[in-house]
Hints:
The complex is a heterodimer. Chain A is α/β, with parallel strands linked by helices. Helix content of chain A is 15%, strand content 31%. Chain A contains five helices and 14 strands. In chain B, 35% of the residues lie in helices and 16% in strands.
Amino acid sequence: MQSSESPSRHSVTGSERIGPYTLVRLERGSVDPGLPGQFFMLEAPGRILPRPFSLCLAPPGELAFLVDPIGPGTQALCELRRGDEIGVLGPLGHGYRLDVARPLLAGGGIGIAPLPYLAEQLGGSPPVVLGFRSAEHAEAAALLPGAEIVIDPVLVTELIETGFDVMACGPKPMLHAVAAMCPEAQLAWEAPMACGYGACYGCVVEIDGELKRLCLEGPVLDATRLNGRYQAPAVSERAVSA
Amino acid sequence: MRILNASGCLDALAAPGVARQLDAFVTKTVTPLPREGSAPPRIAEAAHGMLNAIGLANPGRERFLSQTLPHLAGELEIPIWVSVGGFCAADFAETCSRIPAEVVEAVELNLSCPNVDEAADSAAEIVAACRHATEVPLYAKLSAAHPDVAEVARAVAAAGANGLSLVNTLRAVALDGRLRPLLARGSGGLSGPALKPVALHAVSVCFEATGLPIVGMGGIETGRDALEFVACGAGDVALGTVLFADPGAPARVRAELAAACAEAGVARPDDARGLAKRPETEEKVSA
């Protein structure tokens, strides 16, 4: 993508509720959907800053994003209606490496967002394990037919067996648990971002022992690269991702 | 009128295509020693603006001079301004003395970062020390938080500043749902459209007070916004927060200038310079 151009404008083609989440569909135009795990900055109507989202689905002619309405920006995105238009920048960052022998996809909550597109790009119906905090949230598993599902207090890590190439996305505690179990795992992280292309220095996390920008280094990182010096409280974390 | 970036709002090596849209590139502030910067979360959104507490993260003077600056000079074909920070006048002066004059067009002295403790020395003392250390044009970057920014502007002008960069962000706080600060540092610098009226005022009074060249910044999103800064006395403008949402902003803002000029009844942006000076009627009333 050209991060030196203004965001391209895209019409909303549809919007559907899936449990507490909303799947927002946009006409694709000439945008490259990129690799699974890469992300797009979506204009949040009425807000100063765009919000980062990984691509959930890439139906022909469309880009679809799974949005959790946790703040004013994400709520505005969930309220978009067919025909509305927003700016889209991307794909950005580094996605999952697809050259794995035995993929196992693991998702927690809204972290399932990149997995449908990842499963499609891997092909061959890879096994998928998902964890949710409630039955309502678990309705989102409909995006990944055939997935094994657990609901709190059972943790998704209990479904992860050895011998797989784990590709995960979910809340920080889950990713740290996966990293401890599977040092070879590929993990998709999240951080508040203002720009998505390395300009704002807002999204730093500790990577390889120093603070680095997640938008440029990740958001998908090998499990060994990120350690936990800064595990911000989940609420504050959502300062801008909301 | 030229379009620059606000210091710290663009990494020209990560996004050279954005930097090349500018008329000059201003580096992130360089300090004597490397700084990791503030702990995350470092950014938050506020009404009509955003807060940042990056904390002057930078590789430090040695690595900046030996690696970053040569790399920038090789990569960009536009003039480079170096933003210099420090914690006392000697810090600033030492960095200025070592910046190769043939590589940079100007030095911007960051006298007003809201995310570090302020230098013990006054703005004028720092400018005076730097004036002795380099022949490169010096721009003093000031904050509108000072009760009388025009007075500070007069002082740095007398100390040898060649120009002013107005304004830096304002110290601010934003709270989460549980009434805790969103930023790990607690407070941060407010930028974006919320800052624009404050910045326009600072540009206006500093222009009247000093007549120095001014780079105006603070919430510029459109060509019309840029023109307003020129009308208040800025010779050039800089884009900051808008770059985050729109990496094509420099080219877009430049393209919007023609229509903004036509609407305002001026032929070129430079013809708007100083138009916002207080109307004569007010002088008559006060007389």
